[in-house]
Amino acid sequence: MKIKRILVSQPEPENGKSPYYDLAKKNNLKIDFRPFIHVESIHAKEFRKTRINISEHTAVIFTSRIAIDHFFRICDEMRVVTSDSMKYFCTSESTAYYLQKYIIYRKRKVFFGKHRLIDLMDVINKHKDEKYFVPVSDTHKKDISKVLDNNKIKYTKAILYRTVCSDLSDLSNINYDVLVFYSPSGIKSLFENFPDFKQNNTKIASFGPTTIKAAKDAGLKLDIEAPGPNAPSMTMALEQYIENYNKKK
Question: Which of 62, 142, 227, 231 could be disulfide-bonded to 237 (CB atoms 3.0-4.6 Å)?
Fold first, then answer.
């Protein structure tokens, strides 16, 4: 049987533009999108139990747009007014520009790196006297603390949102030729929703080393891995695999 149906464990692209649509059209595929995980807020009542005072901090480190959303949400819920002198350090330029949703960008001190936190450390180290607040999820990368500790940065890390498995019960009788995963949490959600899942002829595609490891640890046979030397994106990896696979069928 040729590969005809793919399920991507992410939300459907909002703007109607995605390499996945080009992939579907070119290879006559049906591609569905369904997030296997979603984010839930840590609300003010729960956050107060941590006894963390956001107002005591003079700078914030943002590793994602969603961290920005939840930082300003919790400030609103706690009625915390951030000082005009607050400094914002973002791991990427796109994350930094997203701050415009909440602040007058040109009037604040905003710094950004190339992509990773470690790339931002040269700038952070020039502001060692600041007391940093770092909003994260319950599944945040542990190297955040390692990098900051190694550089002797004064910071408070706070979980403001958590990643939880979505209810996928409506997919129980739907069969796909390929399941595409982008996070270990997506793999976890698959088995939480379908504890008796048998891979059989279903192809598994995973993006990134941590997702690949999670898939293998769960006993799944990986057919498509990305990024790779000849396929830096998941859609490129899928296209190469599908074209080769369908030729043989």
Answer: 231
